[in-house]
Amino acid sequence: MITYQTEGVDMPAIKKRETSAWIKAVAETYGKKVGEIAYIFCSDEKILEVNRQYLQHDYYTDIITFDYCEGNRISGDLFISLDTVRTNAEQFGATYETELHRVIIHGILHLCGINDKGPGEREIMEAAENRALNMLADFQ
């Protein structure tokens, strides 16, 4: 089950049923089933607090993914800073909606086993994000 929650921010205008169907379809392309996924939309202040408390990182980010996967069933808590999503959309020349969907699926791709920190991994992640975003139109 996929849930959408907020902490200190307004719920973004996403189509939850359609977004959930898209997430499941993307996961299936990696041979994964969706278990318990919780999206927590929050502010920069909250994501910085989570980053410091749980990861000992002292910086803002767009998403933090806590992985609770077992076997081929993906589960996790995904904190998304809507402040950083908005800033990144402006910086990258993307719409807020497109950037939000990119970040939503970025966390799922991590749970599916795609990394983005090592050599060449960022390009692999970006390609996977772009493939997933191309699928989104089928669900909107």
Structure overview:
The protein is α/β, with parallel strands linked by helices. The protein has helices at 16-29, 44-55, 82-92, 96-111, 121-136; strands at residues 2-7, 33-42, 63-67, 73-81. The chain has a 4-stranded mixed β-sheet with strand order 1-2-4-3, sandwiched between helices. α1 links the parallel β1 and β2. The longest helix has 16 residues, at 96-111.
The structural class is alpha/beta
Helicity level, as a percent range? 40-55%
Tally of strands? 4
Please, how many helices?
5
User: What percent of residues are in strands?
Assistant: 15-25%
Outline the low-pLDDT stretches. none
Mean pLDDT: 97
Please describe the biggest sheet, giving its number of strands, its sense, and whether it closes into a barrel. Answer: 4 strands, mixed
* Computed CA radius of gyration, to the nearest angstrom: 14 Å
Q: What is the first-to-last residue Cα distance?
A: 19 Å
Tell me the series of helices and strands, N- to C-terminal: EHEHEEHHH
For the largest beta sheet, what order do the strands appear in spatially? Answer: 1-2-4-3
Indicate the overall shape: globular
